[in-house]
Every structure is written in structure tokens, then in C-alpha cells.
Amino acid sequence: MSIHPQVIEKDGRKEFVILPYEEFLRLQEELEDYHDLRMLREEKASAGAEPTRSLDEALKDLGQ
User: What is the C-alpha separation between 15 and 18, in angstroms, rounded?
Assistant: First the structure.
């Protein structure tokens, strides 16, 4: 992903960054995906050796 930021300075120091709206939306989506992936990995790691079952088994238990 390529972004094109515009940096605005205040009192000679970098203070703000402006992005084109479409780039902001893509960046926001990427961050949300990354957050979801981190949460999934944390949950998977904390599950350890807990027993699992397949989707087919779960659906069968739900009567579907």
C-alpha cells in the first residue's frame, strides 16, 4: 500500500499529517485487519491444547 501524506508544521515542528481520504480508509481497514489477526492469534495461543471440533461437527450439533 502506498500513501501520500502531507506534513504540516507548527512552530517549526511536525504537528499534523493529512492523507487523501481514500488512503485514510485503506489504512484504517488495514489496521482493523491487523487488530483482528492479533486477537485471533492471542485467542489461539491461549486455547493451547483445548479440544476442538470441525465446522461440520458444530453444525451437526446445532441441527443444521
Answer: 10
Distances 1 to 21, 29, 30, 41, 57 between C-alpha atoms, Å: 14, 12, 9, 23, 39
Contact 3, 19 (CB under 8 A): yes
Q: What kind and span of H or E run contains 64?
A: none
Query: Does residue 36 form part of some domain?
Result: yes
Q: How many domains does the chain have?
A: 1
Question: pTM of the predicted model, to two decimals?
Answer: 0.63
Is residue 57, in this structure, part of any structural domain at all?
no
Domain that holds residue 39: 6-48
**Mean pLDDT score, 4-14:** 96
Supply the DSSP symbol for 37: H
